[in-house]
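User: My instructor asked us to take a sequence, write out its structure as tokens, and then describe one feature of it. I'm not sure where to start. Here is the sequence I was given:
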Amino acid sequence: MAAEPTLAADSPAPLKPLSGLPLVLLTIAVAFSTFMEILDMTIVNVAVPHIAGSLGVSSSEGTWAISSYALASAIMQPLTGWLAKRFGEVKTFCFSVGLFVAFSMLCGLATSMPMLVIFRLLQGAGSGPMVALSLTLLLSSYPKTKQGIALAMWAMTVVVAPIFGPILGGVLTDNFSWPWIFYINVPVGALAGIITWSILRHRETKTVRAPIDVVGLGLLIVGVGCLQFMLDNGNDHDWFASPMILTLGLIALVALVFLVIWELTARHPVVDLSLFSRRNFTVGVTALSLGMLAFFGISVVFPLWLQTTLGYTATWAGLATAPVGILAFVVSPIIGKNIQRLELRAVVTFAFMVFALTAYWFSTFNSQASFATLVLPRFVMGIAIACFFIPLNQIFLSGLRPDQIAGASGLSNFCRTLASSVSTALTVTLWQHRTEYHHAVLTEHVSPAVPATAQFVQQLQGMGIPGKPGLAVVDQLVTREAATLAVNDVFFGCAVLFLALIPILWFARPPFGNAGGAAAH
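Assistant: Let's start with the prediction itself. The structure tokens for your sequence are:
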């Protein structure tokens, strides 16, 4: 029979919130830690061709540098609550930062693909608890009246980091070499870890010496691992037409179903699924995850369309994507400062309406759209980010005890990360299938019997492009227009999803109070 958990005898009593310079330094350190961890999920994307060429592997093998990190991070995120209770929030966070920094350096020093994959796995494992615990540490260090500002600061880093990742990755790989996308983590992470430890080492949380749930941990690793690998590689293997992908999907389904059953009855679960019994947590995490699915889908397909169809370079595609962070950066502090005065469900409803409007706006573009035309809706979308991310975090954290915040943050971050992975797989697959459909439809209208086609072919002949070369040009144009029509379909689908999410928000029950504070009945 398992021993009852016992509180560590040397656990300090709750301390007063920080103020002045220590609070400023802690906010900066934690913000940079969060920024650095999330940045690493996207900064590698543009460097894959450089990494593959340098290490002598194919581009598809090079994507393992992305998949391995996401895999380990996704597994560790739900474990955040258990780790924080077992070892303390401050120790767990600082140790995670230390692991992340150490393996970032080793990733840069890797001389073969297997080495890089192993170091990326360990780097991802270290990064898993960082984002969730960064929010937890901020909320516990800020006065209750200013926790909205803490949420705003955290939200800005979480949202803005993926936008700047591809730009920074392109600049570093083009002007230096790919290892520098990992080396830049070392000084930033080391400084952030040292500052956080020096300020919070005497403010450690109570620890609970509970036995580890080995069965739950095993099911989590197998289920999430197979699911993440399936999502990362399904599109390259034609999804369930591939026996490997089908097997991974079945293993993930069985393992995750058994994980839910086991964790709901385990005495010391590694993942606190009882949080979903709270209405606000369930509503908030559901809206956050599905909202991220639609938002991330736009953020993935948009730059891909610019590069593969409109001929943009990686740098210019990043510049077209980045303006979404401008209004988010400006509006987030305003939302955070006034969060106690706002009807949060109405604020998120406004965010979803803006998201839907801008997604529909994107769906009206053609292949001749100018850079300025493409950037404008991306800029407007930024206001919705602040009105979406901050209030939903406040909603799902409302009414939770302080000792539940780490577990709730880890679980919500896992759902958000999983939604992003599903979004990437779903939107890219949908885009490809709709491109094939539109290509077939457009091709039906390309024949010598159609006056427009005959006239265009004659123009090509006049330009010295007769016969098969001319038909190849026609096919390229058809493919471009088909891809554009397909991406319009994806954007329109995201707009519909945003509108469909609005009713879900209103199942949340106010008052939402301070994050981590007991809600009034």
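For the description part of your assignment, you could build on this observation: The domain at 274-521 is CATH 1.20.1250.20 (Growth Hormone; Chain: A;). Try explaining in your own words what that tells you about the chain.
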